[in-house]
Structures are given as C-alpha cells and as structure tokens.
User: Fold this.
Amino acid sequence: MATETVAHVRDATETPEGKLNAAIAAAAETAQTAETAQRQLVIINWSGQYDKVMPTLIMSSVAAASGYRASVFLTFWGLLPFVKDEKRITGENWMQKMLTLMQRPGIGHLKLSQMNFAGLGPWMIGKLSKQHNVASPRELLEACQLMGVEFMPCQMTMDMFGLKREDMIEGVGDPVGAATVLELMTEEHTAALFI
Amino acid sequence: MTTQAIHSTVDTKGLACPMPIVKTAQHVKTVPSGALVEILSTDPGSVKDFAAWTRSTGNSLVEQSTDGGVYRFVIQRA
Assistant:
C-alpha cells in the first residue's frame, strides 16, 4: 500500500500538472527565501553604557547571523563605544574634550547605567560574564563586524562632539542623518529599536 | 536517521547566548549546500534558538537530542 502511494506520487510529478505543481512549489519556496532575505533589524544605539550596548550588539549579531540585514545607527553617547579604544581625549575645543574626559571612549571602557559604584559594578559584571562564558562587548563587536552588521554614525553628533572618521574604529560606515535611518526603519519586514 | 555523513562539527559547549548561533552561522556559511553540520551546546536556550534560527535562515534542523546536559543539533544547509 505504502509502495503504491510512493509510486503514485512519483507518477504525479511526471504529468504536466505534476510538473506545474512542482514548479509552483519551487517558486513559492524561492519567494519565501526572498522574503526572509528582506527582513531587517534597525537599532538606534543612543546609549554608551555596558548594559545597553550589550543588547544592541547581541541582537544585531544574531540578526545578521539569521540572514537579516542589520543596521545600527550610532548617535549621541552611543557613538563613544565605537571610538578607537586607544583614543583618550577627542575633539577640538575644551568642551568637546571634556566629554571624552568624563566618559572614556572605546568598547573596552563601558560603564553600567546603574550600580556603577566607581567601577565596582562593571568589574563584577565582567567577572560574572567570564564565569558564565558570556562574550565580552569586544568579542560581540567583532562578531557583528564579521557577520556584516552595518554601523552608521550620526553626522550631527560627530560634528558636535568633534569626532573625526579616523577617531572611529574600522568598519564604521559613512556618517548619516535621521532621514536615512527613518527610511530604513519604515521599510517592510523591519523591526526598529531605540536602545 | 540520516545515512549522510556529518560534514563538520561546531562545538559551542560552555558558550552563552548569542555565541552558539553566531559561531554556527559563521561556520554554516562555509559548508556546501546540503551538507550536514553537527552543533554541540550546553546552553538550554539553544533548543528554542536553533529552531528559530533554522526557520529564519531556511536551513533545516534534521536532528536534535540531549545527552547529559549537552544539546546536539544536526542542521542541513539549504
């Protein structure tokens, strides 16, 4: 009985209707793949703090790993983690210099949004992360870059903070404005987050 | 279940989210279409995550088992 059914199915694919159905099924599959390829995640990374940069990097790396287009707009404090780690003071005038003097830039110098306690909080989180094999922000950033996450710095913040392209880590794209991000955020099959 | 040989293994034992998915995605990109990739993980969240990941990417989850806290997945590249 089972053999008969299999034989029948095989016959069906050889008839014109069967071939047509197979072609339709193949086309539907292709369409589905195309639709999957269009899905995207857009994150506005506004914060420069450890506990907020982490979800940005985790969500965008997984999105890229899942075949989504992933874009991260870096604005305001959210730009500073993407400044080269070795940069200590950036900017031209004393006010711009004060910004990075007060919030040290670089992915290796993130502070917590709460319970920072002059560095005790981040030290504890770092220790707990190691114990539980949680990837560091730097490792996650490298994964993002390897998977093709697009990092777009905010032109307005770059100007205001006095940041230059050469201050930013490699792989950060051209500075853009709000209209570029808005267009991405309102595309079909898009999830947009403000973190 | 499958007679096809495993092409390669991604050992993510001990790693926390999102690294099992990230490492798997990076590896699967390098194998030929139709190849079977075995993934080992100790992250309980990976059971739901690999099901979601295969649905998102169009790759197939062909086998899944647990042995003493190690989750094993076999994925076939689309």
